[in-house]
Amino acid sequence: MSTPQPNKNAPISVYASIGNVLTHYELDADTAALTPHAALTLPFKVQYVWPHPAAPFLYAACSNGSPDARGDAHCVVALRRDSASGALAVHGAPVALHSRPVHMTVDITGKHALIAYNYPSHLTVHRINTDGTVGDVVQQQAKLDAGIYAHQVRVALSNKAVTLVTRGNKATSAKPEEPGALKVFAYDSDSGQLTPGVSVAPNGGFGFGPRHIDFHPRQPWVYASLELQNLMHVYRTNPDGDQPELAPAYVKALLADVAGVKQRQRSGTIHVHPNGQFVYVVNRASGVEKVGGKDVYIGGENNIAVFKIDPTTGEPAVIQHADTRGVVARTFALDSSGRLLIAANSQPILARVDGKLITIPASLAVFRVGEDGKLTYVNKLDVDASATPMFWMGIVG
Question: Which end of the chain lies in a sparser environment, N or C, as judged by fewer CB atoms within 10 Å?
Answer without folding.
Answer: N
